[in-house]
Every structure is written in structure tokens, then in C-alpha cells.
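As a next step, we paired sequence with C-alpha cells, yielding the entry below.
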Amino acid sequence: MPRLIIVTGAGSGIGRATAERFAAHGDGLVLAGRRPDRLDAAADALRAAGAAEVHTVPADLSDESGALRLHDHVEALGRPVDAVVCCAGGTVDAGDGHLKSIAAEWHDTYRANVLTAVLTVEALVPLLADTAGIVLYSSIAAYRGSAGTGGYGAAKAALHAYTHHLATRLGPRGISVNAIAPGYVAGTEFFGDRMTPAREALLIRQTAMGRAGTPQDVAGLAFFLCSPEGAYITSQIVQVNGGSQHGV
């Protein structure tokens, strides 16, 4: 029987590339995210590429009801979960700088980047197979801050503490828990229209390899961490950034 893999934020970018990497291995997939049209498009593309099993669960995973919807769908499949990869997240507009908008920005950023991971994992813990793998997606911003908004880097840093907590808590079951902190990854919607040519050139110059990352660079590591070969790696924050320095 194929493994069962849960990927959140799977409709685009790194999340979609992650789903594609597991599908190429023959794993069964449950794709979850807020945008049904993106999930359906990703699922159709995976099936067209030969994926044997793809389910979609449209849900806002920053809310308890969305996490419970995912839990119920997965439980109905009747077999244990072999890996959970939490890719959902993103930035929130900075607002007008007044205290009320700052509070809203930080609150919404925390929900989008921390609660989407925490509620997903906690909803699925009872369904995890022993020796399952969990991967959370952090960011280089957790180390050097984030341009334009402090909330994003702070939220991603919170996932580091949660990673260590989960690894200790679930380790006796043989479950590994790690986080991946990518640097600049091209070909995603993350920056929207905020990425200027000058900014992109600067981010690439900061790497040792002289190129931007790709979604596949990140997806390959997530797959490895959830494989038997990566099973003894746990409680780690792995940076995938081409050797980027912690500059601005």
C-alpha cells in the first residue's frame, strides 16, 4: 500500500512542488489549502502526470474547524498518515502603521504561518503512523528578519521552538520533526509584485552559488526528511539558501 502524505499549502509554489516530489515516488496525497481552484488544478496536474491517489481538502487551517475538516477526511481514508508537510503560510500587508493595523498585521501573520502548522499537526497527531515524518516550512527571515514587516520573521521563528517541542514529544513513537528554512526561492507567488529586479539581484548576490533557489530544491529535502534514510534526523532547522549570508 502506498504511503499517505499530507501537504498543506499545496496549491502553488513550494507546496505544489512538494506534492509533486512525493507523487513521483508513488505516494498517496491529501492536498489541503484555502483555495479550492488552486487545489483542484494541482490535483488534476498530478493525476495527469500519473499520480495514483490524490485527495483535496479545501480548508482554512488557521481555524480549528478547518483543521478538524482535514482530520475527518484523513480519518475516513482508514489508514495511518506517513508524513505531514506544512507549507501553508505567507506575508500579510503591513497596513498604515497605526497601532491598530500593526496589531492586525501581527495577528494575521501569526495565524497564517504558525496556527496553520500547529492546528494541522495537532489535528493529525492521533492519525500518525509510528516512524512518520513531520516537516514545517520556516524561512531565512526567522534568522535575519523580514523586509517591510517584522511579523513574518517572528512567526517563522516561532515554528523553530514548536519543532523542538514536537520532536521531543513524538520521538518515543519514532516520529521525526524538522523544519526547513528556505532563502530566496524564485518561481513562487510569495513576493507578488513586490520583487523588483534590483531586489532579486541583491538576494542572488548574497548566495554562495550565484542563483536563486527553486521550489524543487526545497521539496527534495522535505522528501528526504520523510524517507527511511532521513528517519534519524529530528529537531533540526535546515537552511536551504545556496549559502546566503544573513545580510539585508
Remarks:
- The CA atoms of residues 170 and 176 lie 7 Å apart.
- The chain has one domain: 4-240.
